[in-house]
């Protein structure tokens, strides 16, 4: 009998090209996604006059800077933004790298597009110069974000030096109640462990509640691993995974698919495998959760009040809470449901897949949003699908803008910004100071919760709005 | 990359937790080529008001702050976005070392790849260093070989992985190191392709790749 092995270790070992005397591993990279921000890395390559080692394993995707009002580069007013998109086209073309560009019908946010196209597969090691690369771990791959120097290294060698992280398992037992989503699981564990609670760890999510999540919900959960400081997040592939992947454009077909599935089915943590840290949550502890501060760890169930720093015994926590409340323009002890909002945003690599749009639309159908806002689908194919289902009409009729796909207002690089002092209920991943624009105030929550906030003009428990609505729609995110 | 052994210099205290990379460099500046110098963007929205007027009270606007090479801060420094531009902003400003109780994983890797030392200290020690530095740039001494930091009478040790320490002490670059293993990589890739043939991207038959 061999020693019981974790999912993480199985995938890691299969990719270890070399281990140095100091214990660092040189890992083989199966997929490398590059977006507009890769220009620094391509410039480094040019300085050294190096080619891209494996252009066939490298994929270019325009998402961070793309306009959401047009698919026409000429329509981009800011020449510097235009230049970012053009540089990606030029660099990928020069090195023979496939590009999902602005005008491509498959264009989308890298972490939506990869799975959608079947480029993401179980058992791979995948990297991208974007911290939300952890998303792809939902398929049982090791996927993580890297910086520009590392992007250059992968371009030049198709490998990357890594120190092996510790491995933790987050188990969610029981079944999630209706209206509770993967976003709520993530915000709950991050609030509990802290925004650096998983620092130095690879995370495996396990347990009954995780197994019951749809593929799209698993992507949301793994996506947010980085917000708790995790190096990556993974879920063992199962029938849900294989069913999602079958017949995707870049997935092997026929005999090759069977062969792949046979291998993928071996990718799980053996019974008795040792984890460096075990964390267990019960599904019934998880409520619809929203952030109130400027770090994802500053999150609470919607029926609670924002903390009163005077009541916090830890002086560091009290200081942080005081600063967060000041930036967010909130009063100590204020009920979360008394917080009025100015705007909503539904989008990003975290929560802009078709199930997310359906969940938001289910709340908004026949309703008016009390505040302005926009919806930016996670990919152009998601947009097409949503339009085929009539979801675009629901958003437009509610008074929201129906935009093209891109990173958009999650990070504001394309100019989609929340104004200074404005409060935005957002399906995104970061409530950092200035993330959605200088002075912008962000509250993170699930798509249905953002829709509920839009309908009432303040933070709202979606369960109080949707009583009686078809539960199959409400429970989006669970199978 | 310039090696680091000892820094006998000025340090500044940035007494805040969760100084994420969005704060270190706001996204709107990341369209600029590196040649413009990213130091001007460092903590831009933290140290300027909405009109772009510098906050004279902010530590980086105090006399001699331009000569500071070490920043001391609180936990979870550099969390969030993988943007290496956050490190460029620190390095271009003149920083060679950041001291904190914990760092965002990706930030720390990026730092080492640019010769910026991410020195991890105990939470209590960070507080002692912050107190000793006060609210003006003050003398600080960092010794990478001995892994110690001194401000006035406060002396604390710091941790860093052996690999990173060696890289920083020698100013080594990964790409050069890796290319020495070129043959091993080639052999690995060939074996890997035999063992996991389905991982080779299979171009969709019905669709073409856009030229952007």
From TrEMBL, chain A:
<comment type="pathway">
    <text>Amino-acid biosynthesis; L-leucine biosynthesis; L-leucine from 3-methyl-2-oxobutanoate: step 2/4.</text>
</comment>
<dbReference type="InterPro" id="IPR018136">
    <property type="entry name" value="Aconitase_4Fe-4S_BS"/>
</dbReference>
<keyword id="KW-0479">Metal-binding</keyword>
<keyword id="KW-0408">Iron</keyword>
<feature type="binding site">
    <location>
        <position position="410"/>
    </location>
    <ligand>
        <name>[4Fe-4S] cluster</name>
    </ligand>
</feature>
<keyword id="KW-0028">Amino-acid biosynthesis</keyword>
<comment type="function">
    <text>Catalyzes the isomerization between 2-isopropylmalate and 3-isopropylmalate, via the formation of 2-isopropylmaleate.</text>
</comment>
<keyword id="KW-0411">Iron-sulfur</keyword>
<dbReference type="GO" id="GO:0051539">
    <property type="term" value="F:4 iron, 4 sulfur cluster binding"/>
</dbReference>
<dbReference type="Pfam" id="PF00330">
    <property type="entry name" value="Aconitase"/>
</dbReference>
<comment type="subunit">
    <text>Heterodimer of LeuC and LeuD.</text>
</comment>
<keyword id="KW-0004">4Fe-4S</keyword>
<dbReference type="InterPro" id="IPR001030">
    <property type="entry name" value="Acoase/IPM_deHydtase_lsu_aba"/>
</dbReference>
<keyword id="KW-0413">Isomerase</keyword>
<dbReference type="InterPro" id="IPR004430">
    <property type="entry name" value="3-IsopropMal_deHydase_lsu"/>
</dbReference>
<dbReference type="GO" id="GO:0046872">
    <property type="term" value="F:metal ion binding"/>
</dbReference>
<dbReference type="InterPro" id="IPR033941">
    <property type="entry name" value="IPMI_cat"/>
</dbReference>
<dbReference type="InterPro" id="IPR036008">
    <property type="entry name" value="Aconitase_4Fe-4S_dom"/>
</dbReference>
<dbReference type="GO" id="GO:0016853">
    <property type="term" value="F:isomerase activity"/>
</dbReference>
<keyword id="KW-0456">Lyase</keyword>
<protein>
    <recommendedName>
        <fullName>3-isopropylmalate dehydratase large subunit</fullName>
        <ecNumber>4.2.1.33</ecNumber>
    </recommendedName>
</protein>
<comment type="similarity">
    <text>Belongs to the aconitase/IPM isomerase family. LeuC type 1 subfamily.</text>
</comment>
TrEMBL record, chain B:
<comment type="pathway">
    <text>Amino-acid biosynthesis; L-leucine biosynthesis; L-leucine from 3-methyl-2-oxobutanoate: step 2/4.</text>
</comment>
<keyword id="KW-0100">Branched-chain amino acid biosynthesis</keyword>
<protein>
    <recommendedName>
        <fullName>3-isopropylmalate dehydratase</fullName>
        <ecNumber>4.2.1.33</ecNumber>
    </recommendedName>
</protein>
<comment type="subunit">
    <text>Heterodimer of LeuC and LeuD.</text>
</comment>
<dbReference type="InterPro" id="IPR050075">
    <property type="entry name" value="LeuD"/>
</dbReference>
<dbReference type="Pfam" id="PF00694">
    <property type="entry name" value="Aconitase_C"/>
</dbReference>
<dbReference type="InterPro" id="IPR015928">
    <property type="entry name" value="Aconitase/3IPM_dehydase_swvl"/>
</dbReference>
<dbReference type="GO" id="GO:0003861">
    <property type="term" value="F:3-isopropylmalate dehydratase activity"/>
</dbReference>
<dbReference type="GO" id="GO:0009098">
    <property type="term" value="P:L-leucine biosynthetic process"/>
</dbReference>
<dbReference type="InterPro" id="IPR004431">
    <property type="entry name" value="3-IsopropMal_deHydase_ssu"/>
</dbReference>
<feature type="domain" description="Aconitase A/isopropylmalate dehydratase small subunit swivel">
    <location>
        <begin position="12"/>
        <end position="121"/>
    </location>
</feature>
<comment type="similarity">
    <text>Belongs to the LeuD family. LeuD type 1 subfamily.</text>
</comment>
<dbReference type="InterPro" id="IPR000573">
    <property type="entry name" value="AconitaseA/IPMdHydase_ssu_swvl"/>
</dbReference>
<comment type="function">
    <text>Catalyzes the isomerization between 2-isopropylmalate and 3-isopropylmalate, via the formation of 2-isopropylmaleate.</text>
</comment>
<keyword id="KW-0028">Amino-acid biosynthesis</keyword>
<keyword id="KW-0432">Leucine biosynthesis</keyword>
<keyword id="KW-0456">Lyase</keyword>
<dbReference type="InterPro" id="IPR033940">
    <property type="entry name" value="IPMI_Swivel"/>
</dbReference>
<dbReference type="GO" id="GO:0009316">
    <property type="term" value="C:3-isopropylmalate dehydratase complex"/>
</dbReference>
């Amino acid at each position: 009998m061999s020693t019981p092995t974790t999912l993480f270790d199985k995938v890691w070992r299969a990719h270890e090209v070399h281990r140095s005397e100091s214990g660092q591993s040189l890992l083989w990279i199966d997929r490398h996604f590059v977006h507009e921000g890769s220009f620094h890395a391509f410039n480094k390559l040019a300085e050294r006059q190096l080619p891209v080692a494996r252009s066939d394993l490298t994929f270019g995707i325009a998402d961070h800077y793309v306009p959401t009002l047009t698919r026409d580069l000429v329509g981009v007013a800011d020449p510097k933004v235009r230049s970012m998109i053009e540089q990606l086209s030029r660099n990928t073309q020069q090195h023979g790298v496939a590009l999902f560009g602005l005008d491509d019908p498959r264009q989308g946010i890298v972490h939506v597009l990869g799975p959608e196209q079947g480029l993401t597969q179980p058992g791979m090691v995948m990297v991208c110069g974007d911290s939300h690369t952890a998303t792809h771990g939902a398929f049982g791959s090791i996927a993580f974000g890297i910086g520009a120097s590392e992007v250059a290294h992968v371009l030049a060698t198709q490998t990357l030096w890594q120190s092996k992280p510790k491995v933790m398992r987050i188990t969610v037992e029981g079944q999630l109640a209706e209206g509770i989503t993967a976003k709520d699981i993530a915000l709950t564990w991050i609030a509990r462990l802290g925004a650096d609670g998983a620092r130095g760890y690879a995370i495996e999510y396990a347990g009954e509640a995780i197994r019951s999540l749809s593929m799209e919900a698993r992507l949301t959960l793994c996506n947010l691993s980085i917000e708790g400081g995790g190096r990556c997040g993974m879920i063992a592939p199962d029938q849900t995974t294989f069913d999602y992947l079958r017949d995707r454009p870049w997935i092997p077909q026929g005999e090759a698919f069977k062969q792949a599935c046979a291998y993928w089915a071996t990718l799980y943590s053996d019974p008795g495998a040792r984890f460096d840290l075990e964390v267990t949550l019960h599904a019934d502890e998880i409520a619809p959760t929203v952030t109130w501060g400027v770090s994802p760890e500053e999150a609470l169930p919607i029926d609670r009040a924002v903390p009163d720093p005077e009541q916090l015994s830890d002086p560091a926590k009290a200081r942080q809470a005081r600063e967060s409340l000041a930036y967010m323009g909130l009063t100590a002890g204020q009920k979360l449901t008394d917080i009025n909002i100015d705007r909503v945003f539904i989008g990003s690599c975290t929560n802009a897949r078709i199930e997310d749009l359906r969940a938001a639309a289910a709340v908004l159908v026949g309703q008016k949003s009390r505040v302005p806002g926009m919806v930016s689908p996670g990919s152009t194919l998601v947009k097409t699908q949503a339009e085929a289902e009539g979801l675009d009409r629901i958003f437009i009729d509610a008074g929201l803008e129906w935009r093209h796909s891109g990173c958009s207002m999650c990070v504001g690089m394309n100019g989609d910004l929340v104004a200074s002092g404005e409060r935005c209920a957002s399906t995104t991943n970061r409530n950092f100071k200035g993330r959605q624009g200088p002075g912008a105030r962000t509250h993170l929550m699930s798509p249905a919760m953002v829709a509920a906030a839009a309908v009432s003009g303040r933070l709202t428990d979606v369960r109080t709005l949707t009583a009686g609505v078809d539960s199959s729609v409400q429970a989006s995110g669970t199978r | 990359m310039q090696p680091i052994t000892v820094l006998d210099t000025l340090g500044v205290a940035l007494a805040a937790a969760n100084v994420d990379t969005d704060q270190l460099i706001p996204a709107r500046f990341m369209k600029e080529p590196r040649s413009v110098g990213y130091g001007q963007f460092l903590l831009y929205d933290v140290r300027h008001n909405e009109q772009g007027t510098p906050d004279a009270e902010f530590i980086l606007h105090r006399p001699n702050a331009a000569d500071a090479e070490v920043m001391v801060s609180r936990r979870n420094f550099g969390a969030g976005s993988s943007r290496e531009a956050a490190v460029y902003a620190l390095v271009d400003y003149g920083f060679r070392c950041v001291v904190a109780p914990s760092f965002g994983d990706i930030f720390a890797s990026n730092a080492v790849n640019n010769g910026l030392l991410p020195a991890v200290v105990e939470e209590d020690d960070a507080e002692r260093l912050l107190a000793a530095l006060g609210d003006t740039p003050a003398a600080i001494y960092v010794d990478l070989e001995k892994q110690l930091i001194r401000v006035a009478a406060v002396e604390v040790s710091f941790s860093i992985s052996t690999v990173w320490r060696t890289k920083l002490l020698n100013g080594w670059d990964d790409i050069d190191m890796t290319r020495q293993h070129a043959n091993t990589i080639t052999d690995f890739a060939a074996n890997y392709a035999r063992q996991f043939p389905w991982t080779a991207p299979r171009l969709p038959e019905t669709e073409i790749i856009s030229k952007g």
